Please model this.
Amino acid sequence: MQISDPAAYHGYWQQDLNSLNSKFGTAADLQALSSALHSRGMYLMVDIVVNHFGWQGNSSSVDYSKYAPFNKQSYFHSFCQITQTDYDNDDQANIEQCWLGNSVVELPDVNTTQPSVINTYNSWISDLVSTYGIDGLRIDSVKCTQQSFFPDFNMAAGVYAVGEVAHGDPDYVCPYTNYLDGVLNYPLYYPLTAAFSSTSGDMSRLKAMINQVKAQCKDDTLMAPFLENHDQPRFPSMTSDMSLIRNAILTTLMMDGPPIIYQGQEWALASTGDPTNREAIWLQPGAYAGTGVLHGWISQINQIRNFLTAVSGGQWGLYANNPIYVDNNNLVLRKGYDESQSITIVTNQAENGGKVQIGLSSNDTGWSAGEDVYELIGCGGVTVGSNGTFIATVQGGVGQIWVAKSLASGSGICGL
Model:
């Protein structure tokens, strides 16, 4: 832990499962927020942790009577500190039983193998979801809790749950998809950021990881892609080229699973990691105005994603992305069944990138010779050639989303 204030708003430092942080408001306030979101067709997703509680002080000073409902030391694992060596060696026994934190703020590790702990947690999450109308859960520090804890917990919640398993190897991460609905797509995160952090990024590695995750994980359409979070450096700290940043966001939003946009990403903040990337966004100048440098881009791509979901009756999201083309600077993704498919082209050529033409066969795109297709970001169309070849021209580092023009007609996008 790099922050010593136990009242910090972004700490996973709970002490009473049944109480809300009064600095944020009351139970009635949270219920009102839930209702307001639902009235706008939005969902409420809550970030929780079951692995540990928090304590300001070292391990020997913990007063377990201050905790609720686990108010005895016997509910927790005996103290040992997780080390970087444990993570490097994937020492699962230590990762699951030892404590996160340090001598300033310790995080006593809950013994989630105990039946009484399991039953209490299952009842608690069921009540929490029903009381506040929660629609989904992000579960922190999942790899620090034994896998067998999660199926019954997920079932008791009765809503979609995605777990944080901070590891880049699909061999390590994918087994967790057998115990939870989904996990954060950390295996994709590393080749994604590497591909777009410079014009020499490896697009082939990104393509390979998309296919590997699809092959190894139970259902990659339930995994959550992301470009930034509170534990990792913000992406604009890796590159200042707005074309690269936009293409990385485009890839995230058009990837399989529910994409995550981290608070502040719309402002292109460039902090380099924990804790500086946990800024209080409401303190940013104009924070509520929706005028961040990437507000419009994120909104535009999200509108297209929502359109594709709606026009396909939800089937677009159930189709696992198929990388159909890659070269040194470009990657092409097909997503969606025939008649509602999209073709997304992402590039790391940067803002000063030259003109490149990419030809794709009808076997790749699903479009027929003579069919009119339309690009929904730049707003322009072409006709598929008589031999079934679709040719896209990529220029200036601008990503593209193509669909059949007949599909987009009446969508309002690009005035169609």
In short: The chain has a mean pLDDT of 95. The two ends are 51 Å apart (CA to CA). The longest helix spans residues 115-132. Residues 200 and 329 are 8 Å apart (CA to CA).
